[in-house]
What we know:
4-stranded antiparallel beta sheet, globular, 15% strand, 36% helix, homodimer, Aspartate Aminotransferase, domain 1, Aspartate Aminotransferase, domain 2, alpha/beta
Amino acid sequence: MIKINENYQKLSANYLFAEIANRVTDYQKNNPDQKIIKLGIGDVTEPLVPSVIEALHKGVDDMGNRESFYGYGPYEGYEFLRSSIADFDFKKRGININPEEVFISSGAKEDTANFSEVFSQDTKIAITDPVYPVYIDSNVMFGRTGSYQNNHYQNVLYLDCTADNQFKPDLPKEKVDLIYLCFPNNPTGQVATKKDLQMWVNYAHQNKALILFDAAYEAFIQDEELPHSIFEIDGADEVAVEFRSLSKTAGFTGTRLSYTIIPDKVHIYDQEGHSHQLNKIWLRRQSTKFNGVPYIIQKGAAAVFTDKGRSEINQQIQYYLDNAKIIQEGFRSLDIEFTGGDNSPYIWLKTPNSISSWDFFDLLINQCQVVGTPGAGFGRCGEGYFRLSAFGNKNNIREAMERIKKLKIC
Amino acid sequence: MIKINENYQKLSANYLFAEIANRVTDYQKNNPDQKIIKLGIGDVTEPLVPSVIEALHKGVDDMGNRESFYGYGPYEGYEFLRSSIADFDFKKRGININPEEVFISSGAKEDTANFSEVFSQDTKIAITDPVYPVYIDSNVMFGRTGSYQNNHYQNVLYLDCTADNQFKPDLPKEKVDLIYLCFPNNPTGQVATKKDLQMWVNYAHQNKALILFDAAYEAFIQDEELPHSIFEIDGADEVAVEFRSLSKTAGFTGTRLSYTIIPDKVHIYDQEGHSHQLNKIWLRRQSTKFNGVPYIIQKGAAAVFTDKGRSEINQQIQYYLDNAKIIQEGFRSLDIEFTGGDNSPYIWLKTPNSISSWDFFDLLINQCQVVGTPGAGFGRCGEGYFRLSAFGNKNNIREAMERIKKLKIC
């Protein structure tokens, strides 16, 4: 008899963003005339920049001619793109990353989820609370956790991020093997200093642990003192993997391209304690289960790593950060506490009158027709908080804030 | 301490096609002046057809304008594409498949590999021997098999496909839960009649088993009596999932788009014996670990399901089938036994003088500069066989066969 993976049944409920999408669809069905402003899922709204569009057209043309046609590409991505990334994102900032350490993929979501597969079943994981749900859900599906009780999965170490620690996780008191970190953080918008990251790199060295570092929002960093990559930290190239994405950097949420950096020096261990190069293990995983990102998309992505492309993209980043300022000003005027928005596209606010985060979600959609993300969807410590994204049309963001200001509760 | 997934260490060696690529690279490095003809990996060589190119350009243009820009798409793919597929591939052939039963993905390799995740750890699987390596390797990585001994993994039922049974698997004598079938077959090129498939559908009903049916090569079927889909078989819509791909159908190996059909009526069971809709389980998997196929690529793919696009594609299919005829004629003239090539792009031949299939691989590359795929790479029953693909430039195929004819061993 064909049976379901029993671990799937441990999953608490719907995937958060699917649940939000369902509620929004229901609301719109019942209120077809209302204009909803979506600041929930964190989806970009500005079109791809001209350099990328031009490169994509060129890529399409290549595929239409026998002489320039591309069939199966390398599992790890084309050299032209991996080299550009190594140069532009890393060597230019004094970080020594080679093209062989770069793996092109179709999304940071896909890669952070799939990465959970390559480690031993008994790997002890640490995640922050609140957290991007994919890190934990993929581990639940893999069978690395116990059941769901009181909004936490058993056998997972949660690192509380609250106002008390400025939403920055403290080091675990017990030993863990795998640590998920995300800075600038989703959902809190908090950033990490070099000192913060050095603390984690030291912990990883001391405990032979591995850090999975999600840098999907690094392009929003404005403060020149802040690190864009964990590989700016001494010793990180032995204990960390970094995930980057063009989704938020260059408006690729619907175009799909990310890249994962696995330095040659990162090793993991077998049961006998022998070390293995993680880079090679991941390539084996990808060559078996993945056939690469479309050539056309890789061609378009390469334009992001040119001076012209980057200058166009920086204007978009600035546009979204200006939106973040509008949201910040709105909440300041309402005396509502929040973090984020300076070096990140997310604003993480305390719900007014401490109402529950799903109640605030319902209130906002029903009374303001504004969609945000309830903090509780990101974990136990997210209760009483709410995430708004700065992605969107500026006029819509302004309108959303005007509507929120009229809410009696605020 | 961070440890490797111990199941990865069971994997016999390199992924087959990565191993072939390595040997070819080595040969080319040592013989830079030799012109290699690659008939190994089964990669298309004809460019994308004009209708697809036009639609891709349109898709790119859409992404360059705020009004027509697309961010995150539905996890299961855009309705415009799922509808076209349901109509064109299924309803037109009298098969009742709805858009809600179609899931767009980035490759049949990705989906057949990822599908192994959603079932219980103790699922007993049956695969044919020879087999497309991804089916078995993904199950090894998942921990569903024992160790590798004598070219077989323990705890897997292998269904021998030999000249004795015309390369069509017999029903298992024991009970299995999950059966992987592929017709037209990769690597043997063998096809299945409706009667053949009915036998498997009946088995699945009797044993509450599930069939994963890989129809990646259905577009090559010329014989009007042969089924293109397992859903042409009575009762299949309760016990089968079908994987389709544009890779070979429309030259999408480097463009990446596939689709998986999971009828609403397919259910799998939990430990208590309660049934669950597989369709919903897969959507939960995809929404957690996948963010959809690029909008641009889906837009291009939609052109495949139009009369104009299909007529252009049919010419390409015919081109490759004409290549297959050239290969067939070559081997006939050498009195070498083979199957395939009539309704499939693959020719599966017996190695001359019964030399081993990797020896034949080395002989072909060294003496003819022709790359094929050693049968042993597909399983124990593949030893003594060799796969040549009909994908390639017609002149190259002719030249390859002329070179092979001059081989003394033939």
